[in-house]
Amino acid sequence: MSEQSASTAERIAPPAERIGFLGLGIMGSRMAANLRKAGYELTVWTHTPGKADKWAAEHEAVAAQTPAEVASQSDVVVSMVVDGAQVSSVLLERDGVIEAARDGLLCVDMSTIAPQDTRRIGATLAERGVAMLDAPVTGSSPRAEAATLTIMAGGEKRDFERAKPLLETMGTLVVQVGELGQGEMLKLINNSLGAANAAALAEALLVAKATGVDLDALEQVTAAGSGASAQLAMKAGPMRAHDYTTLFKTAHMLKDVRLCLEEAQGAGAPFPAAAHARDLLTAAVGRGHGEQDYAALIEAAEGLAGRRL
């Protein structure tokens, strides 16, 4: 084989690591699809009966019956589930990853959970010779599908370097931000800041409406001024249309903000803007919008104002 042919074969060789993926929800299904597109051998599992089999058939992957079965067939296991209780369940409890754990297995948790839960789970896995990274993401389902997520990872540098190639198949910005748990903390701060911006946007829209300002002009001018934000670009339209098609659930945003405020309180650092956003999100969930997009916090703001956009 010529040097040029060998180089070509090396470029097209499939990735060596076998990947397990736990969780095929709105985000996880799209992230796992990008791993398959990159050529990774994939074994998948999710809580909903039959869902993993259907997904595996569509993407030429293998479906497993338990997280332990996924671990037995994988070098790296990625988890993308709802909360700390689910992460603990799929990694540590009956039929969980730890039951099939072996030295050299790496767990990459991409869920958004409390940093203290991440550190507790990581310590238990380490006792079995299993390494862990926390690598939560920012970006909603369209960015998950386009593989343009931002990924912030916490953990040992050697584990980050090992996981970085597979993370780069799911995101365009992949950053190690500190020790285990710090990826989660940064994600919670980021989401809380986003929620605070969304709350301010909702209230600004209502003030504009109440004072007779044209809302199209408000969007145009604010986007070019100091009030510009990602939330303005993403959520002004849905708020005005009362369109809460789910990109990121209100209940999930509320969970993240609550976790951030718990950490902030423990550190003695006030975050009143996030606390206000928490209250609006709580009211939106109370109004039945928990499974809808967090643009639905406009409903709570409208309730306080006693008017609709």
Structure description:
The protein folds into 2 domains: 177 residues, Rossmann fold (3-Layer(aba) Sandwich), CATH 3.40.50.720; 120 residues, Orthogonal Bundle (N-(1-d-carboxylethyl)-l-norvaline Dehydrogenase, domain 2). The chain is elongated and about 65 Å long. The strands form 2 sheets. A 6-stranded parallel β-sheet has the order 3-2-1-4-5-6, with helices on both faces. It contains 14 helices and 9 strands. It is of the alpha/beta class. Helix content is 55%, strand content 13%.
CATH topology of the largest domain: Rossmann fold
Q: How does CATH name the architecture of the largest domain? A: 3-Layer(aba) Sandwich
Strand share of the residues?
5-15%
Strand order of the largest sheet: 3-2-1-4-5-6
- Low-confidence sequence ranges: 1-12
Features:
single chain, 2 domains, 14 helices, 3-stranded mixed beta sheet, 309 residues, elongated, Rossmann fold
